[in-house]
């Protein structure tokens, strides 16, 4: 009888040790998944394109187009831009399938793409101006993350 009792006690401890090992493995798997997610996020932030808008000054009879230059070293794909007046009216929309990144030590060919602006209100007083809001949506060249 005592041998059977000890066998049950040992089996119980073995089962508890197996459960503890499974829990420890699960905790380590969660930590590994979180570390991989954090590493992917850090890489996506590093690869994030960085756009700089160029809004030219113009006279009332000239067409206006906002230029966008990617100043990051990495390309952006599926780039879509919207230009709005601060009051809420959309005045331009455009995009490009690829905006090439900047290569240090080289000359820039100018903006990667332009968005033509239409229906701007007429400015009547000297010094009068309006504010533009620019919204860009794009993906980094590896497709790791969509940005806005």
CATH class of the domain at 51-147: Mainly Beta
- The strand count comes to 7
Q: State the end-to-end CA separation.
A: 72 Å
Which CATH-level-2 architecture of the domain at 51-147? Sandwich
Residue stretches low in confidence (pLDDT < 50, at least 5 long) are none
- Continuous helix count: 1
Class computed from helices, strands and strand pairing: alpha+beta
For the report, how would you describe the main beta sheet? Answer: 4 strands, antiparallel
CATH topology of the domain at 51-147: Immunoglobulin-like
Task: Give structural notes.
- The chain has about 150 residues and is of the alpha+beta class.
- About 30% of the residues lie in helices and about 30% in strands.
- The chain has one helix at about 1-45; strands at about 50-55, 65-70, 75-85, 90-100, 115, 130-140, 145.
- It is elongated, with a radius of gyration of 29 Å.
């Amino acid at each position: 009888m005592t041998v059977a009792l000890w066998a049950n006690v040992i089996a119980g401890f073995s089962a508890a040790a197996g459960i503890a090992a499974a829990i420890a493995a699960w905790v380590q798997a969660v930590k590994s998944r979180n570390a991989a997610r954090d590493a992917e996020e850090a890489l996506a932030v590093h690869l994030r394109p960085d756009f700089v808008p160029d809004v030219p000054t113009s006279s009332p009879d000239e067409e206006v187009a906002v230029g966008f230059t990617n100043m990051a070293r990495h390309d952006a794909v599926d780039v879509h831009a919207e230009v709005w007046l601060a009051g809420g009216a959309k005045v331009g929309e455009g995009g490009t399938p690829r905006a090439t990144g900047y290569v240090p030590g080289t000359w820039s060919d100018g903006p990667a793409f332009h968005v033509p602006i239409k229906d701007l209100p007429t400015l009547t007083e000297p010094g009068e101006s309006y504010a533009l809001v620019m919204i860009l949506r794009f993906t980094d060249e590896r497709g790791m993350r969509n940005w806005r």
